[in-house]
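Work Package 3 (structural annotation) set out to generate three-dimensional models for the target panel prioritized at the project kickoff. During this period the team completed the workflow that converts sequence records into discrete structure tokens, so that structures can be stored uniformly alongside our sequence database. As a representative example, we reproduce one entry of 582 residues exactly as it appears in the project archive.
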Amino acid sequence: MNKFFTKKEMFQGEELESIYRVARRPVDKEQDIDLSASENPMDAMGQGFCPPFNQRTYIAGEGVICQQDVPVKMRDGVTIYCDIYMPENRIDKIPALVSWSFFGKRPGEGMSEWQIMGVPPQTVSKLAKFESPDPMYWCRMGYAVANVDTRGAGHSEGDVSMFSRQDCEDGYDFIEWLGVQYWCNGRVGMGGNSGVAMTQYRVAAYQPPHLACIAPWEGTTDVYREAIYEGGIPALSFNEFIAASVTGNGGVDDQVAMARKYPLMNGYWRDKIPDFSKITIPCYCTAGWSHFHLRGSIQGYRKIKTKQKWLRVHRDFEWADAYDPYNLEDLKRFYDRYLKDIHNGWELTPRVRLDVMDAFDCDYQVQRKEKGFPLERTQYTRYYLDAASMSMQEGSVSAASEVTYDSASGEAMFDMEFKEDTELTGYMFLRLYVEAAGHDDMDLFINIQKADGEGNWIPWHVLDEPHPGAWGKIRVSHRELDSKLSTHYQPVLSHERELKLTGGEVVPVDIEIVPSSRIWHKGEKLRVQVAGRYIREGWFEPLAWDTDNKGRHIIRTGGEYQSFLQVPVIPPRYQSGEYIYR
């Protein structure tokens, strides 16, 4: 059997040949499969495994019933299947929460411990779909939970179409079907983090009438810029890992094969960007300073049209945050307000809540109240790089100098010591004047770090591992900016053409750094780390980039080459003598 097949499809008015990977097939019930011994780590988390088709209603847990493998017909006649959990002794009509993704709507019977990094065993029940609301919590709170196998996933008919117009239309159809079920009060919400969050923005933009609110907790919103070609550098292995884990009877939209076929921005990639202007319902968004969904999560919050929107940004890993009991109660207040019409004071919740990180596991402030993001009181400041001293300073550098490093193994670090406590919260960007010695392109990986007075790196920790710091990336041939999307604090690449380098050519590049929030104390150093590779070891997610580096990288500073880091300095809210309140 062929591993791939193609078909013609329309994306944003552009007809393209789409590549589909043949999905992993559901297993037979008689097969004795030990998921804990699988070579695919997604199996141990329930993603990629599809239990046998079995339409029934049964007691799923104390006080919770499940209608399993319920068929729902889409507008084009395709049937998809869902599991619907609800309170066993329901009296009144209740709202429904939807988990919409291709991850598999329930773990397999007999599966080993439900594995979620950063979350103790048995915290989440085995009724929960991967990265989704747990029915054993939400049903007891008076909600139904619909775990959906989207088109092509599990036993659902058709082919998996990731984050596309087709997926959004299906989401619309399903929500409208769900909202008129005899047990439903007519209000439907969506919930879940990561991949399950990504779908929420897209479906909400299609405005299904019964969709009352969404809670996208940490989700990429621009697949090309934030996942497949971050900074223009292909990152295909992780997405290959995801596509290979999807189980179904059809095909899977193969974003990796499409990235190889269409390496520049086109209709296929634009089709996966939500129309934020059409999202008008209440939204509770979260973002994590430590995770790759960060840029998309904050972009989503900023761009959605609704005025009823809230953002919470934390320093933890996404799964630990999603199932934290305090955060669950917080989310319940949001859902109760907009799905049960309980006037519980939710509107008094600060529009933005930020964790301001310090060092290791220490936070300077937790859930600090703000009115918006970026912060209105931001003072954008530029620190100019000086290769002669490998330092940074306020004000331009008069003398030109340069630093070189081996593109495969070297790095360059520029430090600046703070003379007083300084908070940097928001967007940074780095302008570098660069040259590739011996090649026509170069990939740059940037980390923004903290060091002590002696120059020792001070990381923050996530899942007990040192995090490399706020990051940015760029493939220099992709340096052209999108003038409509870029701002004075956030350069956004257009990715519409390649501009290869010629021998001896020096070019300026503006490198977007993901948002961050951190305090530097007097005597501590701000560090810019530049390398031709991703510097991080031992991380459980298989993150890797297909770099195009040869020879040496040259960074020029000073004189006609004013390389700088622009930072968002946040002044104290109140200061009296030596007393400072932030």
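The two ends are 62 Å apart (CA to CA).
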